[in-house]
Design brief:
With 811 residues, this protein is an alpha/beta fold. Among the domains are: 227 residues, 3-Layer(aba) Sandwich (Rossmann fold); 78 residues, P-loop containing nucleotide triphosphate hydrolases (Rossmann fold, 3-Layer(aba) Sandwich). Helices cover 63% and strands 9% of the residues. The protein has 23 helices and 16 strands. A hairpin with a 4-residue loop joins β9 and β10. The longest helix has 92 residues. It comes from Rhizobium leguminosarum. Keywords: Coiled coil.
Length: 811
């Protein structure tokens, strides 16, 4: 089986303070550290990360969660993260936090794998100590030996034995008469009790139906008072219904008074309408009403459009007036503001376009000037050796040339065969004079070009300072487009704005004319204010000052009819609700009496039925559980205490103690279903049985027997997990046993097991590091040395050793 634990990260866990992170990706991992530095805590962290619990601690202290976080942990919690081969164990889980009361997170392996790890893969130091206890003197006062008690605890057989003993009574139902005397009484009383419950249930259902029907009627009549989920309480609901009825009666009286006053006002208006001024006023009222209706129609159509447009424009130009009093003035002010802003924005865009064009032309000039300057520099570099002073010097020397001997170095130029020396010097003087003239022209041209380039770059810098950024230009362009759209919308509304202003003037003039006529009619001059007061009492919105008094009276009369009808209906409902409430109280009391009787009978019936059902169920469950427990115990014993376990244990023990003649073994139980009594014995190698290992083996071999017992339990079945994690396994071993144990570990490593060993002895750690060092390519060894720094924090440096061929042997 492939698959390893690859890494472990621990923070503030048990005796480990601070953060440590180590790699475990090797077939063998050795962990060393003095006592108290955290070896056992590190192995417990591995168990927690893999299984989600620390079973090695739970066996001794059920409250072990309290002690998992380090005492000095800043957040009062411990953190563990472990990684293993995801192809075998999946990618989820492995990150856990212990808060002192709970463990948050899930283990890396499944529940079945976790159980295998706890029982077969991890041998804690405390567990090894308990294994050694099986060889101590047996207490004669106990029925089970320490070995038997320990084996039952490891395998769960003590719980099975206790369960089987407790289920003995379930074999015969007559055994339950004395502990359950009510069982038989419940059987005999059941038929009569069922009939009484049925009779009481029928009476209760009849009373409930009557009560529910009355409640439905009452809720419908009182829906303005009661909430849908509110219970009906007659004592609370009756005063409120009576108060509501009195309030509606009083309101009907006020409405009757208003009706009398409105009838008198209508008669007074009719008399005034028969006079000459009354006829003129009627015409003025019609004219004013028509003007108001026309203005209202304009306001609902064009007025809404104008107001919406002006509201939008006022967000940019708050100084624009509202359109309610003078639409023409507001329209003109908005048009001027939008046109002015559009002109300014367009100038800004045009100026930015001109600047952009100028920058493009200057950039071309700068590029061309720089190219010309680079060409001049290259030509000047090529003419670097040409100057007029050298030509003058050669001309002075040429007067001293008589033959082909150089007057400077005395060399015979004729040896070169290139003609006379004087001719050569004369030619060189001409070349230098020509080149010097070209250099002077290039220097002048460079100066002019550099000045022009500097001026162009200065202008370029100045223009770039005035250029709009892309964001600014985008904002200006969109603002200009918005102004154009507003201006188009304002032009579309020009005609409607003129119409609205005219309608406002007409409405104002008509209202003023009607007000003058009303003031001239002394008989009804104070009637309008009185009608406004009645309107407030009826909740009617006040009519305009030019509205017809007859129309106002008609509107109020219609509203008065409506409110009187509503109040009369509500008052009648409240009176019916009071009648139903009295009936409901009687029905409710009857239902309560019947329900109490039924509940008492049902409670007695339920107790009787529960006694019978629980008795029958418990008897059946107990019988089935007894059978299954006996079967499970037998199967479990056969699976563990078989010849295969003894064979593996024998092979491992002989390998670690080759000189011991007596080999420990389990005495196999032969009778299925009987309580197990685990007994150890020894077998002589040449045949025959010996006594108990305590009497036959030395102390060192007893420790070896305990260790090999654990290894045999791991190897006797197909492993679900390829790991062996052992805490300080070489207690009381001599050098021979330790050497054989190291050889056994090498064998286990070659058979696909990942071995993690923790030791506290330094010399033993160095010896195992040497013995378990890699012996083939691909083999690895990881060593971890636990310690503490000056501040008390845990340190865990780890080292990886790989296979290195022996070059000397190879040579």
């Amino acid at each position: 089986m492939n698959g390893r634990i690859t890494s472990l990260t621990v923070r503030n866990f048990r005796s480990i303070r601070g953060d440590i992170s180590i790699s475990l990706d090797a077939p063998t991992v050795l962990i060393h550290g003095p006592n108290g530095t955290g070896k056992t805590s590190l192995l417990s962290a591995i168990e927690l990360g893999l299984t989600g619990a620390v079973s090695s601690l739970a066996r001794f202290d059920p409250n072990y969660l309290t002690y998992l976080p380090h005492k000095l942990s800043p957040d009062k919690s411990a953190h563990v993260a472990i990684q293993a081969d995801e192809k075998l164990y999946g990618g989820a889980g492995g990150k856990l936090t212990a808060t002192g009361s709970t463990i948050q997170g899930e283990g890396k392996v499944s529940e079945e794998q976790a159980r295998f790890y706890t029982e077969r893969c991890y041998l804690a130091q405390a567990t090894l100590g308990r294994l050694l206890e099986i060889y101590e003197h047996q207490d004669a006062r106990n029925s089970d030996s320490p070995l038997t008690r320990f084996v039952k605890e490891i395998l769960g057989l003590d719980a099975l034995d206790a369960l089987i003993d407790g289920l003995h009574l379930s074999g015969d139902v007559r055994r339950f008469r004395e502990p359950s005397p009510l069982f038989w009484a419940a059987r005999s009383d059941a038929p009569e009790l069922d009939r009484a419950v049925a009779t009481a249930s029928a009476r209760s259902e009849t009373a409930e139906r009557e009560r529910d029907q009355i409640e439905v009627n009452l809720r419908e009549l009182s829906k303005t008072i009661l909430n849908a989920d509110e219970a009906i309480t007659p004592d609370r609901l009756r005063p409120e219904l009576e108060q509501r009825a009195a309030e509606h009666e009083e309101k009907l009286g006020r409405l009757a008074k208003i009706r009398r006053d409105l009838n008198a006002a209508a008669a007074q208006v009719a008399v005034a309408a028969n006079t000459e001024i009354g006829a003129v006023r009627a015409v003025a009222e019609a004219s004013s009403s028509a003007a108001r209706e026309a203005l209202a129609q304009w306001q609902t159509r064009s007025g809404v459009r104008l107001e919406s447009l002006l509201t939008t424009i006022q967000e940019a130009f708050p100084e624009i007036p509202a359109s309610s009093s003078d639409p023409t003035a507001a329209h003109a002010a908005a048009t001027r503001a939008v046109q002015g802003a559009g002109t300014r924005l367009r100038r800004t865009v045009d100026a930015d376009d001109a600047t952009t064009k100028a920058l493009g032309e200057i950039a071309t000039s700068v590029s061309q000037g720089q190219g010309r300057l680079d060409a001049i520099e290259r030509e000047l570099a090529a003419k670097g050796g040409a100057n007029r002073e050298l030509a003058e010097a050669l001309s002075a020397i040429s007067n001293h040339i008589i033959d082909d001997h150089c007057p400077v170095c005395s060399r015979d130029y004729g040896e070169l065969g290139n003609g006379p020396l004087a001719a050569h010097v004369s030619k060189e003087i001409g070349r230098l004079v020509t080149a010097a003239g070209r250099v002077e022209a290039l220097v002048s041209d460079r100066s002019n070009t550099l000045a022009a380039l500097t001026d162009a770059r200065r202008k370029q810098t100045e223009l770039q300072g005035t250029l709009l950024s892309p964001t600014e230009r985008e904002s200006v362009v969109f603002d200009l487009a918005q102004r154009d759209e507003w201006l188009n919308s304002l032009r579309e509304l020009e005609t409607e704005v003129v119409l609205g202003s005219r309608l406002i003037r007409d409405t104002t003039q008509s209202a003023q004319t009607l007000a003058t006529l009303n003031s001239q009619t002394t008989s009804i001059s104070g009637l309008r204010a009185e009608l406004d007061n009645y309107g407030l009492q009826l909740g009617i919105k006040p009519e305009p000052s030019d509205a017809s008094l007859a129309a106002i009276i008609q509107t109020m009369t219609s509203e008065l009819d409506r409110q009187e009808a509503i109040e009369s209906a509500v008052k009648a409902n409240l009176e019916r609700a009071l009648t139903n409430l009295r009936t409901f109280a009687v029905a409710q009391q009857s239902l309560q009496d019947t329900t109490k009787e039924l509940e008492a009978l049902k409670e007695k019936q339920a107790k009787s039925a529960t006694c019978r059902q629980n008795a029958d169920r418990r008897i059946a469950v107990a019988k089935d559980l007894l059978t299954r427990a006996q079967t499970i115990r037998g199967n479990h014993v056969r699976d563990i205490f078989n010849e295969e376990l003894n064979t593996v244990w024998r092979q491992l023990f002989i390998r670690l103690a080759p000189d011991e003649n007596f080999v420990p073994a389990f005495a196999l139980p032969q009778i299925a279903g009987r309580p197990i009594e685990a007994v150890l014995e020894t077998h002589y190698r040449s045949g025959g049985k010996g006594g108990n290992p305590r009497a036959m083996l030395s102390a060192g071999n007893l420790n070896t027997a305990a260790l090999t017992l654990f290894l045999s339990m791991h190897l006797s079945v197909q492993p679900k997990l390829p790991w062996l994690v052992i805490d300080d396994p070489v207690q009381s071993m001599d050098e021979v046993h330790i050497a054989q144990f190291a050889a056994l570990l090498r064998t286990l490593k070659q058979h696909g097991r990942q071995v993690i060993i923790a030791v506290h002895d330094r010399q033993l750690f160095d010896y195992l590091s040497l013995e378990l060092s890699p012996t083939f390519n691909g083999d690895r060894l990881i060593t971890v040395e636990l310690g503490r720094n000056a501040e008390g924090f845990t340190t865990a440096p780890w080292a990886l050793t790989t296979f290195e061929p022996d070059r000397a042997v190879a040579a």
